[in-house]
């Protein structure tokens, strides 16, 4: 049982946003050196079961072609139900928004990463999400401009629900941010899909 905490502190934010993976259990297979006869035929495989933000079961399967010069790896992930406000420790300080209410029913992610870009799909099943946009200078403040964004987002732009027979996957196609390590790369790909599905 281990814990991983990932944070980002973007320009303009007074504090870092973070997500955590608690009670993490992992199985790693096919660790091979270049001298191994099957090095070029198989991928390193990682299976993880953990609690996301200590509240939701999160399962990840990762295959990584260690022999591939393009750093090709494939990630599949599934998240069980949770209250949407659980995401606020990351959203408030990195996206300058807050989820005031809403239920995340499930998240299903299937992505392929290379040194150049991430491609794949995301399905996010959610209900009754309400957002508040925050002032970048003071993330506790909701001035007129941010309240106007809230009204537009919650009434005209944002899909407040994406569930049942209307559930639609979104495609992800994101150039690799060269200034980010692997966890940051994964997070940016996931975030790009989340932004698409909620528009």
Overall morphology = globular
Total strand segments: 9
Order of helices and strands: EEEEEEHEEHEH
Please compute the radius of gyration using only Cα atoms: 18 Å
Tell me the span between the first and last alpha carbons: 37 Å
Whole-number mean pLDDT: 83
Number of helices: 3
Q: What is the percent of helical residues?
A: 10-25%
What is the percentage of strand-forming residues? 35-45%
Helix/strand class: alpha+beta
Oligomer, anyone? single chain
Q: What's the story with the biggest beta sheet?
A: 9 strands, antiparallel
Poorly predicted spans: none
Characterization of this structure:
The chain is an alpha+beta fold. It has a domain of 137 residues. It is built from three helices and nine strands, in the order ββββββαββαβα. Strands 1, 2, 3, 4, 5, 6, 7, 8 and 9 form a nine-stranded antiparallel beta sheet that branches. The mean pLDDT is 83.
Core attributes:
single chain, about 200 residues, alpha+beta, 3 helices, 9 strands
Lay out the secondary structure.
Elements: E1 2-8, E2 17-29, E3 44-52, E4 56-64, E5 73-79, E6 82-83, H1 88-94, E7 97-113, E8 117-133, H2 144-157, E9 170-175, H3 182-197
Antiparallel strand pairs: 1-2, 2-3, 3-4, 4-5, 5-7, 6-7, 7-8, 8-9
